[in-house]
Every structure is written in structure tokens, then in C-alpha cells.
């Protein structure tokens, strides 16, 4: 019979080992500009080189998880036409498609170059069945452009950064981490805050911040440094201030609600990231997300998950 002291020693060793393993895991957050104008169409090239140099084991993207029924319940009639169309495509496929997990796993084990068109079609259909928008878009991209990716800039983070990074790193599955459960309420609060700000000076403050943010990005954009500029802490903090309504000197119901829903979304996104990072076998995890979210995610991850090492792109 094992004594209590021996049992306690074994438990402490196992706990310490687990702690060290978790502590070694790293999260690098890269803030994106989503879609960039044609005049700066190559803005994602330097960001891709930075991401490839990091050599991530996993890529986390700003897309709703397939099992997040609350987010999809909103998105099926929400702000995004693309998400809306995908939801109803997924719904229709679930009524007719019979998934084959063995075939799916067998196909996914193939190298990208060995995947036939029928293989890609099967994976695309399966991802749609699972309401996995991120990987549905990823493999649709591969089918359209091949394993080298688009030769011309798509001007979007997916085609110019995320998908090319996954292909170069041989990462077969993107990891979704977004949460849009209260995004409808956030947009309502945003509109309300804007109406309230017409007479109390809040809108003027926001306009000045927008102008300052835009003007500071002109020169970096001309010299293909828009991505690096966007990921400077000063730029990220300004974007966070505008998106979270922290700029509002006069507190009003709309601005208070907007701040609340913004912070709560970042909290849930951080939770989605951290839980999946901790459960994974990889050590280096890269998060590709709209730049306005970076500061909020950094704060949440550092405060709630101190065993994870959190870095920003310009660190």
C-alpha cells in the first residue's frame, strides 16, 4: 500500500511536470488589417516572412468554431453575408451528406501536393458539414490556387498570410478561436454610442483618433511597412481605444454597453485560444487576428493564463 507521503510526492512531481510543460508553450499574436487597399496590395508579404520565421506548430484564426451554436445562431442572419451563406450551405449539406471519419483522416494525412481534386472536394464538403468555416475556406483556396497559393495578392489576411503560412508550414488544420455570440448587441451599442456622441464631444475625440491613426500609417504603407506599423504597441493601443470605446470621455449607456461587449468577446476569444493551446502538443502557437483585438487578447491571456508565454509581433 502506497503511503500518503509517497502519493503526495508523486502528485507533486506530476503537477510540476505538467506546469513546466504548460509554461513552455508560447502564443505569438499578429494583428492584421483584414482587407487592404489595392495601392498597398503587398502589405502582407513582410508579415508572412515574419510568421514563417516564427515556425509555428499551430495557427489560430478569427473564425467561429464549428460547435459554437450560439455564435452561428447569430451569424445565420447576422452582419456577414459570407458567414450567412456558409451557415445555410452547411445546414443543407448536413441533411444529405454522410461523413466518413476514416476517409477524412486518411485523406488529411496525405501531403498537400498528393491531394487530388476529389480529395479536396471531400475535405471541403466535410468541413462544411462540420460548420468549420476556417478550414472550408482554406481548402477551397487550395483547390482554386494550388499548393503554391495565389500568385497575385488577394489583399486579405486569409489568402496572403494565413493560408500561405499554413501551406509553407505543412499545417493541415487551422484552429478557430472567434466568438460572436454577442456581436449583434455590440453593433447595436456601437450605433447608440455614435448617436449619443453627437452632442457630448465623444464623436469628435473618436474622429481625431481615427485621423491620427490614418495619418500615421501613410508613410509606412508607402514603404511596404503597413503590417509592422499596425503591430507597433502604440498603434495597437490606439486601435483598442477606439474599438473598446475607451476614448469616450462622457460615459453613456451605448458606449458603456459597447465596451462591455467588446471586452467580453475578447475574454471568450482568449479562453478559446488558451484552452486549445494547453490541450495541444505544440509549443509555438500563432494567433492571426484583427489588430483591434490584440491588446485585449494580450491582457486576458497574461492575466488569466500566466503559464503561457504571450508575445506580440513586434516583440
Report on the architecture of this protein:
The chain is of the alpha/beta class and 315 residues long. It has one domain. The protein is built from 14 helices and 5 strands. A 5-stranded parallel β-sheet has the order 3-2-4-1-5, with helices on both faces. Helix 9 runs antiparallel to helix 13. The protein is globular, with a radius of gyration of 21 Å.
Produce the secondary structure layout.
Blueprint: H1 4-23, E1 26-32, H2 44-54, E2 58-64, H3 69-75, H4 81-94, H5 101-108, H6 117-129, H7 133-145, H8 157-169, E3 175-178, H9 183-196, H10 202-222, H11 226-230, H12 233-243, H13 253-279, E4 284-290, H14 294-304, E5 309-312
Parallel strand pairs: 1-4, 1-5, 2-3, 2-4
Question: Which structural traits does this protein have?
Answer:
5-stranded parallel sheet, 315 residues, alpha/beta
Concise account of the structure shown:
The chain is α/β, with parallel strands linked by helices and 315 residues long. It has one domain (25-312).
Give the amount of beta strand, in percent: 5-15%
Count of helices?
14
State the major sheet. 5 strands, parallel
- Rg over CA atoms: 21 Å
List low-confidence stretches: 11-17
Order of helices and strands: HEHEHHHHHHEHHHHHEHE
Helix fraction? 55-70%
- How many domain units? 1
Shape: globular
Protein name: DUF5694 domain-containing protein
Pfam families: DUF5694 (PF18950)
InterPro entries: DUF5694
